[in-house]
Amino acid sequence: MNKPREKILLFVEYYLPGYKFGGPIQSVANLAQLLSETYEVYIVTRDRDFGDLQPYDGILTNEWIKCEYYQVIYLSPAHISIAAIHGLIQSQSFDYIYTNSLFSYFTRILLFVTLWSRQKIIIAPRGELNEGAINLKAYKKKPYIYLMRFVLNGRIIWHATDFEEIKSIKRIFFNSKIDPLQVRLAPDTPRLLSQRKSYYKETGRVRLVYVSRITPVKNLIFLLQLLKGVRQGSIEIYLYGPIADSSYWRQCKEFISELPINCQIVYKGALPHDKVNEVMALYDFMILPTLGENFGHTIFESLSVGLPVIISDKTPWRNLIAKNVGWDIPLKPSCWLDVLKICLDMDNQTYSQMSEQAKALANDYVKSEKFEQSYLKLFS
């Protein structure tokens, strides 16, 4: 007789068919599919996309829906409460509870309702503890972290997606009850996009694409400010992503209005997951001056299409110049201006070589990472 499969209850603020919250949605979708080969997976999420006031059309709420790889429940706002979440946890015998954020409302409820239980909880900070991210709205985050140090115990397992995140977790919770053995490494599970067949890069012109939320941590204003210093060549930047911070976007628009005539910025709105491939194939480089990423799905997806990247040095994607797939640059305007000039002057032959190397790097990453083994260790 086969042993019953263990059950995982997975909490995520926003999930498919949503797309406006970016990388975390894809992370959880890939994770759920991978785990479904060994575990029974149950996903708890909101009934609407990030920033939306209305729920998804045609999706049943507050009841379990069976999908191909897992079951999912879309909770209405009235059902996201201590009583409702406690009821979900008690409704079945779950072996693990996994939450896809340290600061989400779901996580705060979970830590409260399981405070006196022995229920194993896995917390994935998803880059929230990186230095750049933690310093944004620190007045809210640091008191919360301070309180967490008093409630953490041996039942908490930390899911880090790279060695830098392990360092961040240990640095912030060094003096708490956290056991170093409870910090476990399992890399993000990305998706490979279809490689574009051909593309021509025009010398003296560069078409850049930004695919991310409009929010301070993505650091778009840094890019807009330095563009004032570009007086030669034609630079076009196309922005895709939801406006997560309206005040920040107003500041961005002020800088856009002051740019020289040779710099064109176009906001294209949020980008659905099924359109990412065809949109990325239209541009020369992906650009992201982020203050911190724990993985960077947009970065990986760009490389897999064959799109070299121009990013900050605050992500796990490093030594890109040596690999001839792009640049990971310190957040110094002079460094970024130098790279933009190189991109403007680049001819098609040089660009084509970079594009092919980008595709190869993405393929090699997928082949080299032992995703299934890492996640079996995480849930053990």
Automatic annotation (TrEMBL):
<dbReference type="GO" id="GO:0016757">
    <property type="term" value="F:glycosyltransferase activity"/>
</dbReference>
<protein>
    <submittedName>
        <fullName>Glycosyltransferase</fullName>
    </submittedName>
</protein>
<dbReference type="InterPro" id="IPR001296">
    <property type="entry name" value="Glyco_trans_1"/>
</dbReference>
<keyword id="KW-0808">Transferase</keyword>
<dbReference type="InterPro" id="IPR050194">
    <property type="entry name" value="Glycosyltransferase_grp1"/>
</dbReference>
<feature type="domain" description="Glycosyl transferase family 1">
    <location>
        <begin position="196"/>
        <end position="327"/>
    </location>
</feature>
<dbReference type="Pfam" id="PF00534">
    <property type="entry name" value="Glycos_transf_1"/>
</dbReference>
